[in-house]
C-alpha cells in the first residue's frame, strides 16, 4: 500500500491538517511525487552523461524508461531506507534491477545519494512554487479589486487594539495586497535560482572525471583537470530545468535557507491578512465577514472564519519550520550527520503549509464581505475623540499647542462624546462664541473628513503590477 492509497492505520491522510489537505501543494509534495523527482534526477543524470559522450544513448533511454514512479513501491522503499538512512540507496538498487543489464552500470554513476535527494527536493520545490505563485496572484487580484472599490470607505484605524485615527478600508486592503506581492516576488526570485545538486562523494566531482577517461564513452576526458565533472554540471541542470550551481552545495545550504526564508515570509504576509480579518469579523465588530464561513459542532448560529483561522495557523508554523532549516546551515564536514536529514520532512511541511495558506488566502479574498455601515458607525463610538489629532492642530492657534493638548487629554479622559460638549468645553477654556463658531466643530469632528492621503496612497499602491 502506498502513501496515497493508505486510508487508515499508520498512513497520514491529512486528518489533522485541514490547512493543507487536498491542496495542490499537498499533492505535489506527496511521497510519490518525491519518488518521481528522485527518479527524474537519476534519469537526467544518465541523459546528461550520454549527451557528453560519457554514457551510451541506449543507457539514457533505458534509465528514462524505467524511471517511472508507478513501477516502484513507495512504502517498501521507505521501510528499506532505514538501513542506510535515506531513500536513494534502495531506490538505486531497484532502478538498477529495472533496466537492461547493459544499462545497469550507468545508473547513478558517479553520484552520491545527496546529489539525487537534493536535486529532487529542488524539483519538488519548483513544482510547488509553480502552483503556489498563481494562488498569490489570484489573492492580489481580488485584494486589488477590494482596495479600488473601497479606496475612500472610512473606517477606524486601530493601534495597540484601540481607535487611533480614521483610515479607509481601501488602504488596508491595498496593504494586504502589497504584502502578498512582496511574498510573490521573493518566491519568484528563489524559484529562478533553485539549483541542481551534483558533487559526487565529497563534492569534488572526482568520479565523473574518472569515468570520463574510461573506454568508448570518455568523450570529454583529458580536456583539463576535472573536465568531465565540470562539463556535466550545466548539462545536468538543464536536463532538470534547474539552475546550475556554482559549487556543489552538500554543506553549503544557501538554496534551502533562501527557500525557507521566502516561504516563511509568505506565511507571515498572508497571516497579516488573516489576522486583520479575524479581528474585524468578531461579532462585536462585524466590519468584515468570510464568505461561506464554517459551522460549529455545538452552536448552530456560528459562521466561523475558517479560512482566516487556517492561514493564521500557517503563519505561526512557518517561522518555526524555517528555523529548523536555518539551523541546518551549520553543517559540518563535506556531509553532515543529522543536519541534512533534518531538512527533508521540514521542507516538505513548510511547502505544504504555505501552499495550503495560499490556497485559503485566494478563497478568503474572493469571498470576503465588507460592511461599510458598521465601519462608519464605529467611527462615531467616541463622539469625535478619534480625530483629536486634527482638533489639536486646529486648537493650537486660539489656545496654544500645550494648552490644546491638555484640553484634549482631559476631554478624552472624561469621555466627552458630543459636539455640544466640545463647544461647552471650549467656552469654559475662555473662547468666545465667535471663536468657537469659527472652528466649525461639526466639520472638525467628522471622522470621514480626516482620512488624510489614504485614498491617494491606495491609488498609488494599485499601480504596482
Q: How would you sum up this structure, described in words?
A:
This protein has 465 residues and is mainly alpha-helical. It has 20 helices and four strands. α2 packs antiparallel against α3 and α4 crosses α5 (88-98).
What's the helix count? Answer: 20
| Beginning-to-end CA distance, first to last residue | 46 Å
Major beta sheet, specifics? 2 strands, antiparallel
Q: How do the SSEs run, as a string of H and E?
A: HHHHHHHEEHHHHEHHEHHHHHHH
Strand content: under 5%
Q: How many beta strands in the DSSP annotation?
A: 4
Structural class: mainly alpha
Rounded to the nearest angstrom, the radius of gyration is 30 Å
Average the pLDDT over all residues and give the rounded result.
91
Amino acid at each position: 500500500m502506498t502513501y496515497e492509497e493508505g486510508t487508515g492505520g499508520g498512513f497520514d491522510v491529512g486528518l489533522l491538517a485541514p490547512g493543507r489537505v487536498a491542496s495542490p501543494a499537498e499533492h505535489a509534495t506527496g511521497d510519490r511525487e518525491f519518488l518521481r523527482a528522485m527518479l527524474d534526477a537519476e534519469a537526467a543524470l544518465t541523459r546528461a552523461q550520454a549527451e557528453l559522450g560519457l554514457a551510451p544513448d541506449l543507457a539514457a533511454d533505458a534509465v528514462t524508461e524505467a524511471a517511472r514512479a508507478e513501477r516502484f513501491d513507495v512504502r517498501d522503499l521507505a521501510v528499506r531506507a532505514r538501513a542506510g538512512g535515506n531513500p536513494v540507496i534502495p531506490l538505486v538498487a531497484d532502478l538498477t534491477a529495472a533496466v537492461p543489464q547493459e544499462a545497469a552500470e550507468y545508473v547513478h554513476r558517479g553520484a552520491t545519494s545527496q546529489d539525487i535527494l537534493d536535486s529532487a527536493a529542488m524539483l519538488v520545490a519548483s513544482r510547488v512554487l509553480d502552483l503556489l505563485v498563481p494562488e498569490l496572484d489570484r489573492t492580489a487580484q481580488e485584494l486589488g479589486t477590494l482596495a479600488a472599490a473601497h479606496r475612500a470607505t472610512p473606517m477606524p484605524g486601530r493601534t495597540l487594539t484601540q481607535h487611533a485615527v480614521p483610515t479607509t478600508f481601501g488602504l488596508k486592503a491595498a496593504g494586504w495586497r502589497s504584502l502578498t506581492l512582496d511574498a510573490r516576488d521573493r518566491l519568484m526570485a528563489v524559484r529562478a535560482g533553485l539549483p541542481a545538486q551534483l558533487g559526487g562523494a565529497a563534492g569534488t566531482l572526482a568520479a565523473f572525471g574518472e569515468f570520463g577517461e574510461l573506454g568508448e564513452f570518455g568523450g570529454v576526458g583529458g580536456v583539463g583537470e576535472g573536465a568531465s565533472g565540470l562539463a556535466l554540471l550545466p548539462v545536468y541542470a538543464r536536463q532538470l530545468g534547474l539552475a546550475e550551481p556554482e559549487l556543489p552545495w552538500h554543506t553549503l545550504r544557501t538554496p534551502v535557507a533562501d527557500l525557507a526564508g521566502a516561504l516563511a515570509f509568505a506565511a507571515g504576509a498572508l497571516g497579516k491578512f488573516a489576522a486583520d480579518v479575524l479581528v474585524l469579523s468578531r461579532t462585536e465588530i462585524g466590519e468584515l465577514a468570510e464568505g461561506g464561513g464554517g459551522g460549529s459542532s455545538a452552536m448552530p448560529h456560528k459562521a466561523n472564519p475558517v479560512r482566516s483561522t487556517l492561514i493564521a495557523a500557517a503563519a505561526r508554523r512557518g517561522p518555526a519550520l524555517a528555523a529548523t532549516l536555518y539551523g541546518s546551515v551549520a553543517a559540518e564536514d563535506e556531509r553532515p550527520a543529522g543536519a541534512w536529514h533534518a531538512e527533508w520532512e521540514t521542507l516538505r511541511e513548510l511547502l505544504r503549509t504555505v501552499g495550503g495558506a495560499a490556497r485559503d488566502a485566494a478563497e478568503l479574498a474572493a469571498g470576503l464581505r465588507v460592511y461599510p455601515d458598521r465601519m462608519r458607525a464605529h467611527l462615531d463610538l467616541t463622539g469625535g475623540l478619534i480625530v483629536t489629532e486634527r482638533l489639536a492642530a486646529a486648537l493650537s492657534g486660539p489656545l496654544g499647542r500645550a494648552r490644546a493638548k491638555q484640553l484634549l487629554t482631559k476631554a478624552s479622559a472624561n469621555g466627552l462624546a458630543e459636539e455640544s460638549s466640545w463647544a461647552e468645553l471650549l467656552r469654559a477654556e475662555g473662547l468666545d462664541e465667535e471663536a468657537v463658531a469659527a472652528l466649525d466643530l461639526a466639520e472638525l469632528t467628522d471622522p470621514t473628513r480626516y482620512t488624510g492621503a489614504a485614498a491617494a496612497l491606495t491609488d498609488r499602491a494599485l499601480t504596482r503590477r
